[in-house]
Amino acid sequence: MRATATDxxxxxxxxxxxxxxxxxxxVTREQAAALLSISPSLFDSxxxxxxxxxxxxxxxxxxxxxxxxxECFLALPSRRSTNDQDLDAASxxxxxxxxxxxxx
Length: 104
Fold this sequence. Notes:
Layout: H1 14-17, E1 26-27, H2 29-36, H3 40-49, E2 56-58, E3 61-65, H4 66-75, H5 84-93, H6 96-102
Helix pairs in contact: 2-3, 3-6
């Protein structure tokens, strides 16, 4: 039987319907920020700057694709410890993610 808008039965939570070993492929704004270990407001700035992806929309809900988040994360510059001069150049250049943080 399908639940209707007037049906007062509580809807089952993800954990009770799906096995915990099955990773979600869509996450909320807060979950996306947590995946990146940043605050939701910094995540918003990164989305606005184009460093992080735009959400998918399902009935007015914003849902971020985990694979797109991962790809954007991998595209962020990394520090290489092989050459201190490279570290200085990288930190002075910045990137869109750093720019989004400064814009807060």
